[in-house]
Design goal:
- The complex is a heterodimer of chains A (427) and B (283).
- With 427 residues, chain A is α/β, with parallel strands linked by helices.
- Chain A has helices at residues 18-37, 57-71, 99-105, 123-136, 156-163, 179-193, 198-213, 226-230, 259-262, 294-307, 324-333, 342-347, 365-368, 376-389; strands spanning 2-3, 9-10, 40-47, 83-87, 113-117, 142-149, 234-236, 239-240, 250-258, 270-279, 316-318, 359-360, 403-410, 415-422.
- A ten-stranded mixed β-sheet of chain A has the order 5-4-6-9-3-10-14-13-11-12, sandwiched between helices.
- In chain A, β4, α3 (99-105) and β5 (113-117) form a beta-alpha-beta unit.
- Chain B is an alpha+beta fold and 283 residues long.
- Chain B is 19% helix and 31% strand.
- Chain B has helices at 39-52, 68-75, 126-140, 153-158, 160-165, 221-224, and strands at 5-7, 10-15, 18-22, 25-27, 30-32, 60-61, 93-97, 102-106, 122-123, 167-171, 174-176, 194-195, 200-208, 227-234, 239-243, 257-268, 271-280.
- In chain B, β10 and β11 form a beta hairpin.
- The chains are: A alpha/beta (427), B alpha+beta (283).
- Chain A binds chain B through residues 156-158, 160-161, 164-165, 169-178, 180-181, 184-186, 188-189, 192, 233-239, 283-286, 290, and chain B through 147-151, 155-156, 159, 163, 178, 203-209, 211-218, 227-229, 231, 238-243, 254, 265-266, 273, 275.
């Protein structure tokens, strides 16, 4: 193809291709504009109860998917799904390969383009991001993001093996560290550098148990007193049992749709206003600071900027509190408290539902709701979806909730995905 | 009478240019190794002592009971046991496996040495000795399949010099440890060839309960009451995480000075994985 003197396109025979070329150019511009302009909403979301399940992988996933399908207000047919992204660490190694295809096969999505997403505990946070990007790119209209983990069918020894596979095995693991140990190092250093103490972590534990007590989907539905949480069995000094999340079985499923098809499914969507993500060095000792997570800072900065908000605009946040110190540090990295002031934030009860400045972990968080590794990220989105639509149990509804975020961390902070959700689209 | 010196958890005595290393632990009248020591860790300590005290040598003859590859990665001192090109009769030093938990380092291959009884020995608790011995025997058995995260032989050896001798990379005025492959511009970094100083400051620490410790330690952590780890910063800038030596009664504090000794970490597929463990500066 050649360009003639007047700018018209000629093919190899000299015939004018100007009209066709112009049409192609316009089509490319439309695709580009659609990529930039398309908004993404959650039209349905569901999960299993977290805890000790008798169900296996297929049964748990089917239950989560069934709940998500049922939450769509108008008719939904899983055969409409264009793509699916399912997060899982494949804990236990029972179905390491092709996990996602096995699950979609058993949930009415046979034949859909599917893959497993693995980023340790942030697996489904990134599955959600990948689903969002698939729609934003204009390549898909209806996409499923989900996650699953089966953790409690292993011997204690095998479980401990799998709990430590997401750190830097060559260096951290050979130094005796599993994640309780890694986060314990962070906690002790935080206490040394900032005005914080273990009592502040106890406040976080008590709050999250209080929130989770009222959540029918939570793994640990029990309130704990300050005294009991403060005196728990020492797991990794200074972290006690009440600073550590449980190992849970569970699955979660979120259905996303492009704006031009949303109204086919619901008049009450929850918009994904932004997705941000970041990464950091895997090993704690390779980072300049161990009292902040750079990946969280990058992810939240990016997400807030794209959504046009600040931390002060957030009404509720599902925060990755695999250990209470993780919530304290996230409080700072997400901008709810100034750097080093996370302990004071917790001490003052700032994260308590309908009492503090923002509700942190209305579901109970990983600490109480539970932490089925690969399911956690989209499980957080299930909670925000329900909170923003006012469909959680009435006693635990965050009042006047308009904007919620999810914060999903992989390992000790090597990966992080932050999503901003709203009742309204971005302006 | 020669003076006894403490060095990396062992007792050292000199006699006519030779060096005796001995475990400080006595059990049932015999000298025995501590909870994470063996002939290889003591051999490394002895060679490091000689190198740190002015002896310049590159070769040594080792008995077969000692892991020659670990000695080489820890000290850069080679041996005919590891390197077939080395002639057995032209080595600089000889290491002789002594009775019980003792070794002799000498520049001759004479097998007859006389040393005074070193001072500073201590009795080892019988239960601890028996339990740890049984645990290591079980762990080192080829039939024992570790549930630990799989650090393969090649991955272990790739980082061996850094893990066992604190070999670091020097690049653009910075010291890099543990070794990295590329800088932020995508430039391949040089091989590690500069040793960090054997001194670091504790920046944080934890003690994992036996229930929380990695499964590699599942046989021994209950005996030791858990696993203790320190995060340290070296004088040159890099940070690292290390187990605390099992035979040290030590409760770390932020700001403590520590140094390092090669010790057993765990066993996998019948082979012992060695690494550096932290010892408080006062020991």
């Amino acid at each position: 193809m050649f360009v003639a003197g007047d700018g018209a396109f000629l093919d190899s025979t000299g015939a004018s291709l100007g009209f066709r070329a112009e049409t192609n150019r316009l089509n490319q511009m439309l695709v580009h504009l659609r990529r930039v302009m398309v908004d993404v909403a959650i039209i349905g979301a569901g999960q299993t109860k977290y805890g000790n399940h008798q169900l296996g992988l297929k049964g748990m996933w089917a239950e989560a998917a069934e709940n998500a399908f049922a939450s769509v207000d108008k008719n939904f047919d899983p055969r409409q799904v264009d793509e699916a992204f399912i997060g899982s660490v494949a804990f236990g190694g029972g179905q390491l390969g092709n996990t996602a295809a096995l699950l979609t096969e058993h949930s009415g999505m046979e034949g859909v383009a599917v893959r497993r997403v693995e980023n340790a505990c942030a697996s489904s946070g990134f599955a959600l991001r990948d689903a969002w990007m698939a729609i934003k790119s204009g390549q898909a209209d209806i996409v499923v993001a989900g996650g699953i983990e089966k953790m409690n069918d292993l011997s204690p020894e095998r479980k401990r093996f799998w709990l430590g596979v997401s750190g830097d095995t060559e260096w951290e693991r050979l130094a005796g560290l599993t994640f309780p140990g890694t986060y314990a190092l962070m906690a002790r250093r935080h206490f040394h550098e900032h005005p914080s103490s273990h009592d502040d972590l106890v406040h976080i534990s008590v709050k999250n148990h209080k929130h989770g007590f009222e959540n029918q989907q939570a793994h640990l539905r029990k309130q704990v007193s300050f005294e009991k949480a403060a005196g728990g069995f020492m797991v990794a000094d200074p972290l006690t049992l009440y600073d550590c999340c449980p190992t849970s079985d569970g699955a979660s499923c979120v259905i996303l749709a492009a704006d031009h098809v949303v109204r086919q499914f619901t008049d009450d969507p929850v918009w994904v206003r932004a997705s941000g993500a970041g990464s950091d060095r895997l090993a704690l000792h390779d980072r300049p600071s161990i009292t902040q997570l750079v990946a969280t800072q990058k992810a939240s900065k990016s997400a807030y900027s794209a959504a046009g908000i600040t931390a002060r605009d957030v009404d509720l946040a599902e925060v990755h509190d695999c250990f209470t110190i993780a919530e304290m540090i996230a409080t700072e990295d997400l901008g709810f408290a100034d750097s080093g002031q996370g302990g004071i934030f917790a001490r003052n009860g700032e994260g308590i539902r309908n009492e503090g400045s923002v509700c942190l972990n209305p579901s109970g968080g990983l600490k109480s709701k539970g932490h089925p590794l690969g399911a956690t990220g989209t499980g957080q989105a299930v909670e925000v979806f329900k909170q923003l639509r006012g469909s959680v149990e009435s006693e635990r509804q965050v009042r006047d909730a308009e904007i919620g975020i999810t914060h999903n961390v992989g390992g000790s902070g090597a990966t992080c995905a932050v999503h901003v959700f709203g009742r309204d689209r971005n302006e | 009478m020669s003076e006894t010196t403490e060095w990396k958890g062992y007792l050292l005595s000199h006699s006519n240019g030779s060096l005796l290393l001995q475990s400080p632990y006595i059990h049932d009248g015999s000298t025995v190794f501590g909870p994470d020591s063996d002939s290889t860790t003591m051999a490394v300590a002895g060679i490091q002592y000689l190198l740190a005290h002015g002896q310049k040598f590159t070769t040594i003859r080792l008995p077969n009971s000692i892991d020659a590859q670990v000695v080489y990665m820890s000290t850069s001192v080679d041996s005919p046991q590891r390197n077939e090109e080395l002639e057995d009769d032209v080595v600089d030093w000889h290491l002789i496996d002594g009775e019980e938990a003792t070794l002799v380092l000498s520049q001759s291959d004479d097998n007859h040495y006389e040393f005074d009884e070193p001072s500073g020995t201590e009795l080892m608790d019988t239960d601890l000795f028996k339990d740890m011995k049984a645990a290591w025997e079980q762990e080192c058995s080829p039939q024992h399949v570790s549930q630990g995260a799989y650090v393969s032989q090649s991955q272990y050896h790739e980082g061996g010099a850094a893990r066992l001798s604190l070999a670091s990379q020097k690049f653009a005025g910075k010291t890099i440890w543990p070794p990295r492959q590329m800088d932020s511009l995508g430039t391949r970094l040089p091989r590690e060839d500069a040793l960090l100083a054997d001194a670091a400051t504790v920046e944080s620490w934890t003690k994992l309960s036996a229930a929380g410790a990695p499964s590699e330690f599942s046989l021994r952590a209950p005996i030791l009451g858990g696993v203790q780890t320190v995060l340290v910063k070296f004088e040159e800038g890099p940070r690292g995480v290390f187990l605390v030596c099992d035979d040290v009664d030590y409760s770390p504090r932020i700001g403590d000075q520590v140094h390092f000794a090669v010790r057993r970490i765990y066993a996998q597929e019948g082979l012992i994985r060695y690494g550096l463990k932290a010892i408080p500066h006062s020991v």
